[in-house]
Write a structure and sequence with these properties.
Elements (H helix, E strand, L loop, with lengths): L1 E5 L4 H13 L2 E5 L12 H8 L3 E4 L13 H21 L4 E6 L22 H16 L3 E6 L2 E2 L6 H9 L4 E5 L3 E2 L2 E2 H17 L7 E4 L6 E2 H14 L6 E5 L19 H7 L6 H15 L1
Helix pairs in contact: 1-6, 2-3, 3-4, 5-7, 7-9
Length: about 290
Protein backbone atom coordinates (compact mmCIF):
# COMPACT_ATOMS: atom_id res chain seq x y z
CA UNK A 1 0.00 0.00 0.00
CA UNK A 2 1.18 3.48 -0.88
CA UNK A 3 0.07 6.44 1.26
CA UNK A 4 0.63 10.08 0.41
CA UNK A 5 0.60 12.41 3.42
CA UNK A 6 0.54 16.19 3.18
CA UNK A 7 3.24 17.87 5.22
CA UNK A 8 6.68 16.52 6.06
CA UNK A 9 7.54 18.11 9.41
CA UNK A 10 4.22 17.87 11.26
CA UNK A 11 3.80 15.52 14.19
CA UNK A 12 1.38 13.15 12.45
CA UNK A 13 3.25 13.18 9.13
CA UNK A 14 6.57 12.34 10.78
CA UNK A 15 4.94 9.68 12.95
CA UNK A 16 3.24 8.16 9.92
CA UNK A 17 6.53 8.01 8.03
CA UNK A 18 8.16 6.25 10.99
CA UNK A 19 5.34 3.80 11.67
CA UNK A 20 4.83 3.16 7.97
CA UNK A 21 8.45 2.14 7.58
CA UNK A 22 8.13 -0.26 10.51
CA UNK A 23 4.97 -1.77 8.99
CA UNK A 24 6.36 -2.04 5.48
CA UNK A 25 3.99 0.61 4.12
CA UNK A 26 5.27 3.11 1.57
CA UNK A 27 4.54 6.59 2.97
CA UNK A 28 5.29 9.54 0.70
CA UNK A 29 5.44 12.93 2.45
CA UNK A 30 4.54 15.90 0.26
CA UNK A 31 5.39 19.41 1.41
CA UNK A 32 6.32 22.85 0.14
CA UNK A 33 7.28 23.85 -2.46
CA UNK A 34 5.97 20.80 -4.36
CA UNK A 35 2.68 20.84 -2.43
CA UNK A 36 1.62 24.09 -0.82
CA UNK A 37 -1.85 24.27 0.73
CA UNK A 38 -1.77 28.05 0.38
CA UNK A 39 -1.44 27.48 -3.37
CA UNK A 40 -4.28 25.06 -4.29
CA UNK A 41 -3.07 24.69 -7.86
CA UNK A 42 0.01 22.82 -6.57
CA UNK A 43 -1.98 20.10 -4.83
CA UNK A 44 -3.27 17.87 -7.63
CA UNK A 45 0.01 17.66 -9.61
CA UNK A 46 1.96 16.74 -6.47
CA UNK A 47 -0.51 14.07 -5.40
CA UNK A 48 -0.86 12.68 -8.91
CA UNK A 49 2.91 12.25 -9.12
CA UNK A 50 2.88 10.31 -5.84
CA UNK A 51 0.42 7.71 -7.25
CA UNK A 52 -1.12 6.95 -3.86
CA UNK A 53 -3.65 4.33 -2.84
CA UNK A 54 -4.67 6.53 0.10
CA UNK A 55 -4.25 10.22 0.88
CA UNK A 56 -3.79 11.54 4.41
CA UNK A 57 -4.50 15.26 4.73
CA UNK A 58 -2.37 16.11 7.76
CA UNK A 59 -0.72 19.44 6.93
CA UNK A 60 -2.36 22.45 8.55
CA UNK A 61 -1.96 25.92 9.98
CA UNK A 62 -1.68 25.09 13.70
CA UNK A 63 -0.59 28.33 15.39
CA UNK A 64 -3.71 28.67 17.53
CA UNK A 65 -2.95 32.07 19.05
CA UNK A 66 -1.44 33.60 15.91
CA UNK A 67 -4.55 32.59 13.98
CA UNK A 68 -6.48 35.25 15.89
CA UNK A 69 -4.66 37.89 13.81
CA UNK A 70 -4.08 35.70 10.74
CA UNK A 71 -7.51 34.12 10.33
CA UNK A 72 -7.54 34.64 6.57
CA UNK A 73 -4.26 32.74 6.23
CA UNK A 74 -5.45 30.00 8.58
CA UNK A 75 -8.62 29.60 6.55
CA UNK A 76 -6.71 29.62 3.27
CA UNK A 77 -4.64 26.65 4.44
CA UNK A 78 -7.05 24.78 6.69
CA UNK A 79 -10.18 25.21 4.59
CA UNK A 80 -9.28 26.00 0.99
CA UNK A 81 -6.15 23.84 1.15
CA UNK A 82 -8.04 20.93 2.70
CA UNK A 83 -10.69 21.25 0.01
CA UNK A 84 -8.00 21.12 -2.67
CA UNK A 85 -6.59 17.91 -1.19
CA UNK A 86 -10.07 16.37 -1.10
CA UNK A 87 -10.70 17.44 -4.71
CA UNK A 88 -7.43 15.83 -5.75
CA UNK A 89 -8.41 12.64 -3.93
CA UNK A 90 -11.69 12.57 -5.85
CA UNK A 91 -9.84 13.15 -9.14
CA UNK A 92 -7.42 10.33 -8.33
CA UNK A 93 -10.22 8.03 -7.12
CA UNK A 94 -8.58 7.75 -3.69
CA UNK A 95 -10.10 7.91 -0.21
CA UNK A 96 -8.91 10.87 1.84
CA UNK A 97 -8.26 10.80 5.59
CA UNK A 98 -8.45 14.36 6.89
CA UNK A 99 -7.11 15.34 10.32
CA UNK A 100 -9.28 17.74 12.30
CA UNK A 101 -9.50 18.89 15.90
CA UNK A 102 -11.43 19.01 19.17
CA UNK A 103 -11.38 22.79 18.77
CA UNK A 104 -14.40 22.61 16.45
CA UNK A 105 -16.44 22.38 19.70
CA UNK A 106 -17.11 25.13 22.24
CA UNK A 107 -16.17 22.97 25.25
CA UNK A 108 -19.37 23.58 27.23
CA UNK A 109 -20.62 19.98 27.46
CA UNK A 110 -20.01 18.02 30.66
CA UNK A 111 -19.28 14.78 28.78
CA UNK A 112 -17.03 13.70 25.91
CA UNK A 113 -18.17 15.07 22.55
CA UNK A 114 -19.74 12.73 20.02
CA UNK A 115 -19.44 13.14 16.28
CA UNK A 116 -23.01 14.35 15.92
CA UNK A 117 -22.85 17.01 18.63
CA UNK A 118 -23.27 20.61 17.53
CA UNK A 119 -20.04 22.36 16.63
CA UNK A 120 -19.27 25.89 17.72
CA UNK A 121 -15.60 26.86 17.65
CA UNK A 122 -14.58 29.68 19.97
CA UNK A 123 -11.34 30.67 18.24
CA UNK A 124 -10.12 31.41 14.72
CA UNK A 125 -8.13 28.18 14.45
CA UNK A 126 -11.22 26.12 15.29
CA UNK A 127 -13.29 28.04 12.77
CA UNK A 128 -10.73 27.41 10.05
CA UNK A 129 -10.61 23.68 10.83
CA UNK A 130 -14.39 23.40 10.86
CA UNK A 131 -14.47 25.12 7.49
CA UNK A 132 -11.96 22.52 6.31
CA UNK A 133 -14.28 19.70 7.40
CA UNK A 134 -17.14 21.30 5.47
CA UNK A 135 -14.95 21.64 2.38
CA UNK A 136 -13.88 17.99 2.50
CA UNK A 137 -17.45 16.76 2.93
CA UNK A 138 -18.70 18.88 0.04
CA UNK A 139 -16.01 17.70 -2.36
CA UNK A 140 -15.94 13.92 -1.90
CA UNK A 141 -18.09 11.33 -0.14
CA UNK A 142 -15.05 9.05 0.23
CA UNK A 143 -13.66 10.88 3.24
CA UNK A 144 -12.67 9.88 6.75
CA UNK A 145 -12.49 12.98 8.93
CA UNK A 146 -10.53 12.21 12.11
CA UNK A 147 -10.90 14.68 14.95
CA UNK A 148 -8.13 14.33 17.50
CA UNK A 149 -6.90 16.30 20.50
CA UNK A 150 -3.87 17.45 22.49
CA UNK A 151 -1.34 15.77 20.20
CA UNK A 152 2.13 15.08 21.58
CA UNK A 153 5.16 13.29 20.14
CA UNK A 154 8.96 13.41 19.92
CA UNK A 155 8.58 15.76 16.95
CA UNK A 156 8.01 19.45 16.38
CA UNK A 157 6.34 21.83 18.80
CA UNK A 158 3.95 20.38 21.34
CA UNK A 159 3.01 20.63 25.00
CA UNK A 160 5.25 17.75 26.12
CA UNK A 161 8.36 19.23 24.55
CA UNK A 162 7.48 22.68 25.91
CA UNK A 163 7.16 21.31 29.45
CA UNK A 164 10.46 19.45 29.23
CA UNK A 165 12.18 22.61 28.00
CA UNK A 166 10.70 24.68 30.85
CA UNK A 167 11.73 22.02 33.35
CA UNK A 168 15.37 22.52 32.44
CA UNK A 169 15.43 25.95 34.08
CA UNK A 170 12.42 26.13 36.38
CA UNK A 171 11.74 24.15 39.57
CA UNK A 172 8.08 25.22 39.45
CA UNK A 173 5.79 25.64 36.45
CA UNK A 174 2.26 27.07 36.47
CA UNK A 175 -0.14 25.05 34.31
CA UNK A 176 -3.85 25.45 33.61
CA UNK A 177 -5.97 22.99 35.58
CA UNK A 178 -9.52 23.85 34.48
CA UNK A 179 -9.29 22.71 30.85
CA UNK A 180 -9.70 18.97 30.31
CA UNK A 181 -9.03 16.82 27.29
CA UNK A 182 -7.33 13.68 26.04
CA UNK A 183 -3.60 13.84 25.37
CA UNK A 184 -2.92 11.77 22.25
CA UNK A 185 0.35 10.36 20.97
CA UNK A 186 0.95 11.17 17.29
CA UNK A 187 2.61 7.77 16.99
CA UNK A 188 -0.62 6.16 18.18
CA UNK A 189 -2.55 8.30 15.70
CA UNK A 190 -0.25 7.01 12.95
CA UNK A 191 -0.93 3.42 13.98
CA UNK A 192 -4.66 4.14 13.88
CA UNK A 193 -4.40 5.72 10.44
CA UNK A 194 -2.50 2.71 9.10
CA UNK A 195 -5.19 0.38 10.47
CA UNK A 196 -7.94 2.47 8.86
CA UNK A 197 -6.11 2.56 5.52
CA UNK A 198 -5.66 -1.19 5.64
CA UNK A 199 -9.40 -1.72 6.17
CA UNK A 200 -10.30 0.74 3.42
CA UNK A 201 -7.92 -1.00 1.05
CA UNK A 202 -9.28 -4.49 1.79
CA UNK A 203 -13.00 -3.96 2.31
CA UNK A 204 -14.27 -0.45 1.57
CA UNK A 205 -17.89 0.14 2.53
CA UNK A 206 -20.08 3.25 2.71
CA UNK A 207 -20.34 2.91 6.51
CA UNK A 208 -16.58 3.38 6.78
CA UNK A 209 -16.70 6.96 5.54
CA UNK A 210 -17.71 9.99 7.56
CA UNK A 211 -16.51 11.75 10.69
CA UNK A 212 -14.81 9.96 13.59
CA UNK A 213 -13.13 10.86 16.84
CA UNK A 214 -9.64 9.47 17.50
CA UNK A 215 -7.93 10.25 20.80
CA UNK A 216 -5.98 8.57 23.56
CA UNK A 217 -7.99 6.86 26.27
CA UNK A 218 -8.36 8.80 29.51
CA UNK A 219 -9.06 12.40 30.40
CA UNK A 220 -6.68 14.89 31.97
CA UNK A 221 -6.22 18.56 32.60
CA UNK A 222 -3.16 20.34 31.25
CA UNK A 223 -1.85 20.32 34.81
CA UNK A 224 -2.40 16.55 35.09
CA UNK A 225 -0.58 16.08 31.81
CA UNK A 226 2.32 18.26 32.94
CA UNK A 227 2.65 16.38 36.24
CA UNK A 228 2.83 13.06 34.36
CA UNK A 229 5.49 14.46 32.02
CA UNK A 230 7.64 15.74 34.88
CA UNK A 231 7.25 12.48 36.79
CA UNK A 232 8.62 10.57 33.80
CA UNK A 233 11.43 13.10 33.37
CA UNK A 234 12.37 12.70 37.03
CA UNK A 235 12.42 8.93 36.57
CA UNK A 236 14.94 9.55 33.76
CA UNK A 237 17.19 11.55 36.08
CA UNK A 238 15.89 15.07 35.60
CA UNK A 239 15.44 17.28 38.72
CA UNK A 240 11.99 17.34 40.24
CA UNK A 241 9.61 20.00 38.87
CA UNK A 242 6.51 21.04 40.77
CA UNK A 243 3.34 21.99 38.93
CA UNK A 244 1.35 24.91 40.29
CA UNK A 245 -2.29 24.54 39.24
CA UNK A 246 -3.72 27.76 37.85
CA UNK A 247 -7.01 28.85 36.29
CA UNK A 248 -7.54 29.75 32.65
CA UNK A 249 -8.31 33.34 33.67
CA UNK A 250 -4.82 33.59 35.17
CA UNK A 251 -3.06 32.48 31.98
CA UNK A 252 -3.82 34.95 29.23
CA UNK A 253 -3.71 33.79 25.62
CA UNK A 254 -4.83 35.45 22.41
CA UNK A 255 -7.18 32.57 21.59
CA UNK A 256 -9.79 31.12 23.90
CA UNK A 257 -9.59 27.37 24.52
CA UNK A 258 -12.48 24.95 25.14
CA UNK A 259 -12.90 23.98 28.79
CA UNK A 260 -13.79 20.43 27.76
CA UNK A 261 -11.96 18.83 24.82
CA UNK A 262 -12.79 15.21 25.53
CA UNK A 263 -13.87 13.15 22.53
CA UNK A 264 -16.08 10.06 22.53
CA UNK A 265 -14.29 7.48 20.36
CA UNK A 266 -16.99 4.78 20.40
CA UNK A 267 -17.85 5.16 16.70
CA UNK A 268 -14.27 4.57 15.58
CA UNK A 269 -14.12 1.41 17.69
CA UNK A 270 -17.44 0.13 16.35
CA UNK A 271 -16.76 0.78 12.65
CA UNK A 272 -13.01 0.13 12.43
CA UNK A 273 -12.16 -1.73 15.62
CA UNK A 274 -9.58 0.97 16.32
CA UNK A 275 -9.04 2.06 19.92
CA UNK A 276 -5.97 4.14 20.73
CA UNK A 277 -4.11 3.16 23.91
CA UNK A 278 -4.39 5.19 27.12
CA UNK A 279 -2.41 8.39 26.67
CA UNK A 280 -0.18 7.55 29.63
CA UNK A 281 1.01 4.35 27.93
CA UNK A 282 2.98 6.16 25.23
CA UNK A 283 4.28 8.86 27.54
CA UNK A 284 7.37 7.15 29.08
CA UNK A 285 8.95 6.18 25.76
CA UNK A 286 8.33 9.61 24.24
CA UNK A 287 9.75 11.47 27.24
CA UNK A 288 12.86 9.23 27.18
CA UNK A 289 13.26 9.79 23.46
CA UNK A 290 13.03 13.57 23.74
CA UNK A 291 15.51 13.66 26.63
CA UNK A 292 17.95 11.43 24.75
CA UNK A 293 17.79 13.69 21.73
CA UNK A 294 18.85 16.62 23.87
Amino acid sequence: MRIAVTGAQGQVARSLIERGKEAGVDVIALARPALDLACPASVLPALRAATPDMIVSAAAYTAVDLAETEEAQARRINAEGAGAVAAAARELDSPVLHLSTDYVFDGRLDRPYREGDATGPINAYGRSKLAGEVAVREVTPRHVILRTAWVYSPFGKNFLRTMLALGETRPTVGVVADQIGQPTSALDIADGILAICDRLKKEPDESMFGTFHMAGVGGASWADFAEAIFAEAERCGRPRVTVTRIATKDYKTAARRPANSRLDTTKLAEIYGVVLPPWRNALPAIVERVLRSG
